[in-house]
Each structure stands twice: as C-alpha cells, then as structure tokens.
Protein: Bestrophin homolog
Organism: Parasteatoda tepidariorum
Amino acid sequence: HRYDFYVPIFTILQLMFYMGLLKVAEQLINPFGDDDEDFELNWIIDRHMKVSYLGVDTLNGTPPPLVKDTYYDELDVKIPYTEASKNYKKKTYRGSVAYMQVPM
C-alpha cells in the first residue's frame, strides 16, 4: 500500500499572512494604548508643545507684542501631568546630529 501525503505549503503561507495581518489590525484599533508596541503619546504631546512654543517665541520674523501668560518667565515649560500619566514621561529624543557643530 502506498500513501500519498503532501504538505499544503500555500495554505500554510496564507494562514501565516492572515495571522500577521490580524496582529497589525489589533494595533491599528488602538495605536495610543499602554502596550510596548503603541505610540508614545506623552512624548508626542511634549514634543509638539515644545515645537509650538519655539515657533511662536523665536521663529516668527515680526512677532506681535508679548503678553505675559502663565509660562512667560520659563524657558523650559513643564507640562502638567496627572498622577496616572506622570510615570510615562521620558526624556526628549536627541537625534544623531543634535550636538554637531556647523561651520558658518
């Protein structure tokens, strides 16, 4: 008696592809969650706040008269964290050329 056995290679590839897409779909449902694979929302908010203050305070060629606000005398603005989000604060990312000296 001779048995014909075969391995369904394309079906296995389809299953692996489907499972991979399922993992991607799980992350796309909630990309700002608390898992390790999720976006660092606190870092994104901190960076955008710093960039917006930089743009308003220093990059404008003809700024309007300054009006004193809560953060007027502070150079590095500390964003108010809640008790729940305080543990997620990280240092600001510095790129590989952040401290490079550019000749003028």
